[in-house]
Amino acid sequence: MTTTLDQISPIGYQGDDPTVAALRDSIYGPYLATHRKARELIMRLGDVPPDHLTYAMEAGIAPDLLRAVLGEIGLPAHEITADIHLRGAFGDWAAVAAPHLLTVWTGHFDLAIGAILTHGTGAPYQQNCLTELDTGAAVGVLALTELGGTNGADQQMEARWDPDADGFWLSNPTIGSVKGPPNIADPTVPKIVVFSARLIFEGRDEGVFLFLSRLRTLDEGLADGVEVGEMSSKLGAAMDHAWARADRLFVPRAGFLGGQWATITDDGAEFRCDEPDIRQRCHRSISPLIGGRLDLSTANISAARAGVAGLINYSKQRPHGHSDVLQRDLVTSAAHVYAGSVLGRMIRDLSVDPAQQARLPLWMTVVKPVLTTIAEKALRTCSARAGAQGQLRCNYYPDWIAGARGSKTAEGDTQVLEKAAGRTHHALSTLKLPGAPTVSSWWLDMIITREHTLALDLYIASGIEHSGSYDEEYEPKGTALGIDSTRADLARTTGVRLVVTAALIAGDQATDPAAATIARACAAVVALTYLDRHSGWYNAHSQQSPDLAEEIHDELRRNRVIIVANQTVLAAAFDIPELSGAPMFAPDYLQAWSHLAEWGEHTFTAQ
Ligand SMILES: Cc1cc2nc3c(=O)[nH]c(=O)nc-3n(C[C@H](O)[C@H](O)[C@H](O)COP(=O)(O)OP(=O)(O)OC[C@H]3O[C@@H](n4cnc5c(N)ncnc54)[C@H](O)[C@@H]3O)c2cc1C
Q1: pLDDT digits over 487-520, tens only?
Q2: In a designed cystine with 309, which of 345, 348, 470, 571 is the match (CB 3.0 to 4.6 A)?
Q3: Where does the chain hold its CATH 2.40.110.10 domain(s)?
Q4: What is the per-residue pLDDT across 10-20, written as a single tens digit (0 to 9) for each?
Q5: Boundaries of CATH 1.20.140 in the chain?
Q6: Which CATH architecture has domain 146-285?
Q7: What is the CATH number of domain 35-104+289-405?
Q8: pLDDT grade, residue 465 (50/70/90)?
Q9: What's the pLDDT score for residue 5?
Q10: With contact defined as beta carbons under 8 Å apart, do 211 and 170 qualify?
Q11: Region for 577 from its dihedrals, namely left if φ exceeds 0, alpha if ψ lies in -120 to 50, beta otherwise
């Protein structure tokens, strides 16, 4: 039996419409059941945005939610960390329906536990830390960023090896080396912290490694040799941000997270490391960030799916919801969020492929910026198009926006990642999704042309024949101010190519013809929006005639119209449930307000 459109609801659709099912398949793959289970358990936490708590009280919600969700799941946190799809499903739904939980999610699972799993040796000290992290008895945190800047391999915090003490003394010799802003300020919450610091061995600088510290325990409070101070609050996404200044904070030998690749001999006299390049030691140490970047990407795109679905649901009930000016913004957001969701799912699949492991860091330098940027932009747009309702916390948008804003900075700032990606110039065009569409389209070809042109420009500037400091010698073109701008432009172009390609692949693979049409329309809207916004570049490079510019607009309009007609189906495919206390997600938002206001059956009968 075929479903008619009016039987499909944008929120909480339970039916078996084949188009909805096919689109869901492209977003969730074979893990829809895992996502449904995660959704159910996360919803059970009841984490509605609160109106009357102080910032510190709000920041204090996350540790309780962490313990509660681990209890509900019934698995130790390290097993969840190791299961990339399970971890992703819970992170994604935390972003949607428990935004407070998301603030500690990646720090706990990907970074702290991830560091122990990746670089641990199984030592009892590490296992004891894991046991506490497994239940959420202690919250895991990575303290990487320093006040002097992200610093990468130039970090300044020091960890001096002391053979007599059989451990390390951590200290911050300068203001710039002080750690900030990990979430460690709350004096009541036990924290297990992985510090990044330079290993100083017999006076030699051996590069940056990770050191596992029981920073704060219930019994003993803050560890000796470290001072922690509260940093300022943010507007939303409340976290107990702090600076940490160590002055001989002791970490035992077993707290050194160098796995088998970086070790200190039993007699404490020699340091051995498989990695000869000191700067590479830092990159290898901080590899757990890759999982965090993946989880932040898909989590924020999930919140954006909710944001789009909420606006589709709400605008249908509003007198001017069908206005084309509102609809243009809405379907442009919907297209980006759908295509970004497909890309996120594909990258998660790809991240469990052993053949892709070496390339994952490069993938994530492109994917995290593009997905978190799409998410934040879509959420801001949908919030704005929902007027006042979109600004009320009960409808979640302010919390989602704050989460996306933070995620664009945390675990690799957007522009820093884009610059790093752009440094590899031609390597970016080798980032290809499995099952790339066999039939290309002219708008995708135009994006690829820009990608190749920018990569070639950077390649020539940094070519193998070239010696000396090419960054300074580089002569920028277009809107670039210097070589980093071009690198970022290239990374963004690659990101858009991947988003568009992902939706095209979804169109190819869809079992339902209507779903294929919608997926391709989303790909087209993303691509053509990009071409429209960069028409100056295409003009300057003689890549666009007035006729082509007109065709871009015509095609963009034609594909937007397809999404306008199918927006309910698309929202239903996002699988967003009614959110507690959020009128925009109710089938009748006026009734939802009536319910919240506790108006009775006869309240309005007198008039
Ligand atoms: C919500 C949130 C949670 C966080 N949690 C933690 C945590 O738990 N632990 C932790 O250690 N840190 C944490 N951080 C800090 C975060 O990792 C850093 O803020 C981030 O790495 C950026 O560093 P920065 O703030 O020093 O910005 P900067 O490094 O100053 O970057 C600002 C801008 O400077 C430019 N820039 C910087 N570096 C370069 C470069 N190399 N090349 C070109 N341009 C550059 C870019 O334009 C960039 O956007 C968190 C941050 C946020 C927002």
Answers
A1: 999 999 999 999 999 999 999 999 999 999 999 9
A2: 571
A3: 146-285
A4: 999 999 999 99
A5: 35-104+289-405
A6: Beta Barrel (2.40)
A7: 1.20.140
A8: very low
A9: 67
A10: yes
A11: beta
CA–CA separation, 462 vs 453, rounded Å? Answer: 14
For 13, the 3-state DSSP assignment is: coil
Alpha carbon 491 to its chain's center? 16
pLDDT at 466: 47
Structure confidence at residue 606 as a pLDDT band (50, 70, 90): low
Distances (CA, A) of 584 to 102, 307, 452, 580: 22, 10, 43, 10
Evaluate: CB of 402 within 6 angstroms of ligand 1. no
pLDDT digits (tens, 9 = 90+) for 70-127: 999 999 999 999 999 999 999 999 999 999 999 999 999 999 999 999 999 999 999 9
289 lines ligand 1 (CB under 6 A): no
Ligand 1 contact, 183 CB (< 6 A): yes
Q: Which residue, 487, 481, 499, 496, is CA-closest to 459?
A: 487
- Angle among Cα 575, 576, 580 to the nearest 5 degrees reads 150
> Ligand 1 atom 3: the closest Cα is on which residue?
410
What is the distance between the terminal CA atoms of the chain, rounded to a whole angstrom? 45
> Does the CA dihedral 88-94-96-97 come out positive or negative?
positive
Atom 42 in ligand 1: which residue has the minimum CA distance? 416
